[in-house]
Amino acid sequence: MRKAVVLLSGGMDSATVLALACRDGFECHALSVDYGQRHQAELAAAKRVADALGAREHRVVALNLQTFGGSALTDLSLDVPTGGVAKGIPITYVPARNTIFLSLALAWAEVLDAGAMGVITSKTFYAMGDTRTPTRMSVITYTLYIPAKIFGFLHYGLLGLAVVTSAYLFLNLIIQVVLLDCFVIPRRRRQQQGSA
After folding, report:
1. Residues 170 and 105 in one domain
2. Beta-carbon neighbour count of residue 6 at 10 Å?
3. 62 and 9, same structural domain?
4. Do 12 and 61 share a domain, yes or no?
5. What angle do CA 50, 54, 59 make, to 5 degrees?
6. Does 3 share its domain with 98?
7. Structural domains of the chain, count
8. Mind listing the pLDDT tens digit of every residue in the chain (196 residues)?
9. What is the domain-level CATH number for residue 71?
């Protein structure tokens, strides 16, 4: 049976990824991260989702991002907003969280010899009101990733596969940052100025 590592936050997006992977016949290994967030509700929800959907196992990695702070979720000196959705990138955004999570999932996928990794990395775009860019970016980068992965493995073995996978994750991050900085955030600012 094919194995998949699914990053499971306990929310709808990751629950959907896990449900689809289970439906498609993967042996699913769910991974959640206790990153020092103020609450444990999402970890409890992730456990319920993993149990309900029949994940082979569900692991929780403890990784304290309070060391860096910078988010109302991990920095106790910042208040969690209660007045609804604010404009711009929310104070609850945790810097580099998805990149760190992807690295952990990739490490476990290598140990399990898993052929798939289920991830949702587009929350910042959705927070900025952009629902099209993440889908386009995913289709383009994943389409390029598959042949590159095959090429890397055929020509350089496991080392080539590891290099291509690492490069793919890194380039995905760079593309997200560039798209946000050059297109999404300026467009959002123009919209805000036009409505003011």
Report:
1. no
2. 30
3. yes
4. yes
5. 40
6. yes
7. 2
8. 788 888 898 888 788 888 888 888 889 999 999 999 988 999 999 999 999 999 999 999 999 999 988 888 899 899 888 877 667 677 888 887 877 887 888 788 888 886 655 554 444 454 455 545 555 565 566 666 667 777 777 888 777 777 877 777 777 777 766 666 666 667 667 766 776 6
9. 3.40.50.620
Q: Which domain holds residue 145?
A: 122-196
Is 159 exposed, middle or buried (CB count within 10 Å of its CB: 0-12, 13-18, 19+)? Answer: exposed
Last residue of a domain, one of 79, 104, 120: 120
Taken as a whole, the chain contains a residue count of 196
Instruction: Copy the structure tokens of residue 127.
Output: 């927070």
Of the three residues 73, 93, 120, the one that is the final residue of a domain is 120
* 66 and 55 housed in the same domain: yes
- Residue 135's SS3 state is helix
- Cα 55 to Cα 66: distance, rounded to the nearest angstrom: 29
Q: What is the pTM of this model?
A: 0.61
User: Which of 133, 144, 65, 75 has its CA nearest to residue 101?
Assistant: 65
Whether residues 85 and 107 share a domain: the answer is: yes
Torsion of CA 69, 70, 71, 75, to 10 degrees: 30
- DSSP alpha helices (H): ranges in 39-132? 41-53, 97-112, 123-127
Q: Give CA–CA dist 115/105, Å, rounded.
A: 12
